[in-house]
Amino acid sequence: MVEERFDAIVVGAGMAGNAAALTMAERGLKVLQIERGEYPGSKNVQGAILYSDMLEKLIPNFREDAPLERHLVEQRFWMLDDRSHVGLHYRSDDFNEQRPNRYTIIRAQFDKWFSKKVQEAGAVVICETTVTELLRNVDGKVIGVRTDRSGGQVMADVVVLAEGVNGLLGTRAGLRETPKATNVALAVKEMHFLPRETIEARFNLKGDEGTVIEAAGTVSRGMTGMGFIYANKECISLGFGCLVSDFQKGGETPYGVLERFKRHPSVAPLIEGSEVKEYSAHLIPEGGYNAIPQLYGDGWVVVGDAAQLNNAIHREGSNLAMTSGRLAGEAIFQLKARREPMTAENLSLYKTMVDRSFVMQDLKKYKDMPALLHTQSQNFFLTYPQLVSKAMQNFVRVDGVPKREKEKLTLKSFVAARSWAGLFWDAFRLARAWR
Amino acid sequence: MAAELSVRIEDKLYQNRYLVDAGRAHIKVREHTVPTPPLLALLTACPARCYELNDKGQVEVTVDGCVECGTCRVIAEPSGDIEWGYPRGGYGILFKFG
Questions:
Q1: Interface pTM, i.e. ipTM
Q2: d(CA A355, nearest CA chain B) in Å
């Protein structure tokens, strides 16, 4: 395969791997990136929303040629019961700005573009190659990788593990554990194609404006889960994810939940008549701060989803991936520039940098949210959506019942379902976990 | 509800692009006579319905439609019920959109 020795090997060409490879190659390091897919992006799945700020730190002028879909001017949150939704809707013309803040993207296309930038910066990118093993010396230091190509050993000073949420290398080498079923969600997604004008009319958009709908409720039958609908230019990304442990216990199927979401009366009209061109599935790290593994060791660092860096509350993953990849690249470059060896002690610089960034600060802020939402799923994803929906219907339906009577009925329904103590503790726990 | 759940997964997978590595399944189910709870969970949890019961009541896997999400690995690898590897480089699911 490749005879030479590299400063760094990056395993994987997703957001984190590309960010790391680009950062190091731009600074003159000799970088080899290995991707198991046919092309960068062919194994990658995301909703997907791109966050400009984190990409600008890597490629300031990305808007010139990146394959972007729509810039987001609107966000809708829906709480669903079987026949209705109660929504929170934010739309602002402020988002029609010179340098929009968020875009919808299609990962296979975006990742190809991102990888081109990595190659232009000087990294060697090899596709259709699976890394099968980390090579270690007698002291246990990672010194390279073995691949499934014949004679496929390559040596490097440091290996950046950007192998994704289901990364096998690091877990097999005992650098971290396989994610637990309680700490990952399984999301399934379909790509629904419709004419551009139809999408714009159905979502009330003009030009390249885009919108995002995020929805949770009775569709998941009490499982901790969330659905999403993202408007792209000529297609709609629609999916639903629930905790793997909930699927394991409950016997619901992922495609059954997706189908229920698609047939919901608030969702069905949006995708009516569409042509589905792909069905995908992916795991999402949901464990938050408490699930983050060791991030560095002798001759290695781990970045992105492989390091479980995902903010499940804000549904941000790719920006944490890009940022952790960039910081790993910067840390490695700094060590290299100072001619320091890639020991665990020295590579702890990467962890220090991640700790100082928004990545760890945000994850720390919500460290108790996963436990709350995962253990109280029946209340938060079934009981409350039903109660809130009934309350709203009671509020808007005009039927001659005096308003004071209606309010009493609504309050009664909440207390009957959750009890005063239950309501109090739910509010208290939610506030404390959010703080 | 039964009607709602009668989704033809084959129709969904038919839209996808795959390069099947014939004869080299990247997932193997450990031989068993009676399936363990983790194995039984895979019958419904796998998003591509790769796992099915054979006529002896054992769980079997057919990886051709696998979307490589890793759900079965998270559920059944810790107990040793399945072995999970990546397909060889270039093989398996090839996402057009992702």
A1: 0.95
A2: 28
